[in-house]
Amino acid sequence: MQDEEDYSEIETTEAEFDAMVARGEFLEYARVFGKHSYGTPIKWLEESRRRGLDLVLEIDVQGAAQVKQKLPESVAIFILPPSREELERRLRNRGQDADEEIARRLSKAHEEIVASEKFYDFCVVNDDVERAGKEAQAIVLALRCSSARRRDRVKKVLASFGG
C-alpha cells in the first residue's frame, strides 16, 4: 500500500465547527447522538490528491451519503457486524454506555444497515478482524489496479510501442 498519513482528530470549539460548516470546509460532517460533532476537512482530500495518496475515511452512513453526493466516483466499503447480538456484546464489553444508549446505538445500526445499499459499493462482514482487514485491503488494491486508475500508465506503455 502507498504511504499512509494519519489525519488525527482536530479539536475545535462548537462555534469554530459551526463556522467551518458555514464556510463549506468539510467534505462531510455530522453531529452524532447529539453529543459529538465531527467532519472531514476538504483540505485533507486536496492534500491527499496532491500527494497521489488514497484518502480513507472512517465515517457513518450519513457521512458516506454526503461524500457520494459530492464525489460520486468515491468508493465506500460498509463494515457490517456479524449479527445484532454480536454488536450488542461488543458495545457492552466496551463498558462505556448505559443500557438506553446501547439500545439507541443498536437502533441506529439497524437504520444504517438498511440504508447501506444506497451509498456503499462493497460490504465486509467483521466477524473475523484479520479476514475483514484483508478483504478491505483487497478491495483497495483492486481499485488501484482498475483500468480507470491506470489510464495514464496504460498510455505510457502504449507510447513505448510507438503509438
Polypeptide structure, described:
The strands form two sheets. This protein has a two-stranded antiparallel sheet. A two-stranded parallel ribbon has the order 3-4. Helix 4 packs across helix 5 (99-119). The protein is of the alpha+beta class. The chain has two domains: 1-58, Guanylate Kinase phosphate binding domain (2-Layer Sandwich), CATH 3.30.63; 75-149, 3-Layer(aba) Sandwich (Rossmann fold). The chain has seven helices and four strands. The chain is globular. It starts with 13 loop residues before the first helix and ends with a helix.
Brief characterization of the structure:
Helices cover 53% and strands 13% of the residues. The protein contains seven helices and four strands. The strands form two sheets. A two-stranded antiparallel ribbon has the order 1-2. A two-stranded parallel sheet has the order 3-4.
